[in-house]
Records
---
Amino acid sequence: MTIRTFLFTISFACIISGCDLLDDNNPKPEIPGKIVFSKIENANGNAGTQIYKMNTDGSGLKKLTNFNKNSAFEPSWSPDGSKIVFTTSKKSSVHSSSIYLMNADGSNKRPMKINDNEIGLPYTGRHPVWSPDGSKIAFESGYSSIRVYDFEADSVTNVNNSWGAWDPAWSPDGSKLAFSTKAAYADSVRSGYYRDIYTIELESGRLTRITETGNAVEPKWSPDGRFISYQTAVGGVQAYLYDSETDSHKIILPDFRTSGGVQWSKDGTILYIRASGYEKAADQSRFYKFSDGEYELIHIELDPFKPTGGSYKWYN
């Protein structure tokens, strides 16, 4: 399979939606080609991030959140495009989670009431991601572990019992999660920021270690399940591909000083990557198309908007 790569130095997020806590006025799914992202802004002297959406050509910009003195970030579409789950620093009460849901047009914002079944208090969460069928959301809990919320069962499952886990990512069929963890370094002098990528089969609990570099984060599955992209901090932040068929690892963009935040196109043939340090243009918002070792610069006019901050995903 030929994989093309698009790079850009802006940080934005695109996403997908659907479910039953999800039954809120039956919002219509978004049209493909939308981007949802978090933007750093300074309102009334309070620096933070809010969530916006726009078309892929930069038109149709719309602000979706406006939490005064609180940030909103890490948006993720439900698979049908009708809803967005996101993280916020806003907590309306002791029984509110830091994970919120809203319709794709920004209406009906509400906290997900995800409680710890053992102690009855809400989980604080980060990096929420929808399962491919829209029935579950995986997230990082405040205890540095990966949890999965099931909408139909209205229950939370602890996926990993290891010490410290982040960056959950669903396999295309929803049977596995990839994540980064420092479990292998818990008793080591290297415990600090050291992490590796693992996958876990949700039904059996079987763990597979994917990397052994000690600095691998942010795994993302390819749509066919063959590849897992991830980032390392070896010689600067770089994006890599793991090939499950050959059990091999390959750097994606060796000519860039910094690259990461990989997202896959729906057909798995294009990679979108946030990157800098190529042609001394690290401060410019731009895309690069990569195929067969050739880079092609593609300009996208976003001025005067210039979105910054946060992760990004594509809804295609």
Note: The two ends are 19 Å apart (CA to CA).
---
Amino acid sequence: MARRRRAGMASVLLACTALLATSCVSSDDNAEGAKSAPSQTTPVQAVAGCEKGWTDPSDLSPTRAPARCAPNTPAAKPLAAKTKIVVTAGTLSAEYLGPLRLGIAKGEFAKENLDVELKQMPSTDAITLLAKGEIDALYSAPEAGMVNAAKQGFNVKWVFGNYSSDPKSKTGVWAKVKEGQTAEQVDLKGARFASLVGKTSIIMYPIERVLSKHNAKVTDVDFKQLDAQGVAQALENGGVEAAWLLDPVWKQFENKPGYVFLGGQPAGEPIGGMLYGPNLLEKNREVGTAFARALIRTVNTYFAGDYKADPAFTQELATVLGSKVELLSAVPSLVTDWEIRTGTTDKAQKMFIEGKVVEAPALTEDKLVDRSFYSEAVGHTGK
């Protein structure tokens, strides 16, 4: 019976992800099926160099300084035996993969006795494998697919953040304007909107924030899902009235007559990062903590500030990512941040439910977020 139930749930999840994680429920799909983050079972010890390695998750100030430890901390605590883990990401060349890829290249994970295999895979496919324990971690975000998996009773959690945008960055919503029209005068109700992703993506949260300031809701906008080149072309040739532009694409519209920047990712609030499945959440929590230590140590050593101020490091990073140094240099450094703010998953689910890609009710945060791994890695002993 239990085997049949699990097989049925897996089939439902597979169907959901094949449909880009749109709303998909079975007769036993409800919020009660999701698993809460466990209480810390082992004593957390203070970690030298990480006295400022934690901030209150409820601090939503846009000027909040991200948590930081001293360079080369937290110190490695190698696992007793060499352990291989499999991590997937939708792309391997994006700048936000920098800490993960450089950490592997610099041997930070090896210091923990971890052998990290990094694979490229669409998140809509990877979330199924993560939920079933066929991969260990997924670099993604708390997107609709993850929420639907949790609703089906699969143990998947967002365990640490990735970055927020530099105040100088203009990744976000751009719109066409008429001569003399200001950004404040833009009305997006009924607008055609181009994006790389659809309504299942976490990016709908910051998009909704912008729409709300311009007389529109998510349901008032006609979304067009295009590739990166297509998004920019559609905005330029009039195929859409607005678009979400990524680094460094927005640079070609900056200071260009007829285009305005309306807003992007909330300052000081990561909306993506690393997801763990049952292998690290349940079976091998010490491996999950070791992975967190290595990633956080990489951030503190190489990505703590304006890392692109050093041309030699920018070149090294471009080489590791398989990117071009001129592309990295064209836009500001990311504000790396391993922590997760309170309320992010609540706001994301609101958009998913309105977009009809997740069914109500929304899950509580403890069903989707587990901060215990990064808290233990930096030695935070409080709540």
Note: The longest strand covers residues 83-89.
---
Amino acid sequence: MIDFIMTNLPIIVCFVLGIGLLIMEALMPGFGIAGFSGIALEVVALVLTWQQHGTMATLGMLLIVLSVLAIAISTSLHSLTKGKLSKSSIVNSHTESTDAGYRSAEDMQVFLGREGTATTALRPTGLGEFDGVRLNVVSEGDFIENGTKIRVTQIEGSRIVVKKV
């Protein structure tokens, strides 16, 4: 048994380290050094197995590698959709919906010339409400008190400039 382990030690080390690196890569975002190193170690382990033990042993090892990778990938996908990772702000893409208050710069052009109310003091930035929609606005440099009537005078990208009516 010891002779078997000692003669196959390079294969075992390459195999175990390669699997470990591939699992680590599956659980980490991106494709980097761990993934390339894991693939290289698995290829080395497969070549050494093929040279020392033949085709059937190599196919058996390849089956084990693919099974471990399938389990690691399915675990990652499960974590992405239902685990702790799914609750993180990195994965939540629905937070940028218009229902949550996000609007594109093109949408803002409809507010040009509209009148509304400052819902916070504008020093020079704050919030204004126009037809029931709250927007981040910037005054033309003047301090505008909360509750004052304001008008949109200019839109530069996502920057909405207002002045007191």
Note: The beta strands are 115-118, 125-130, 133-139, 149-156, 159-164.
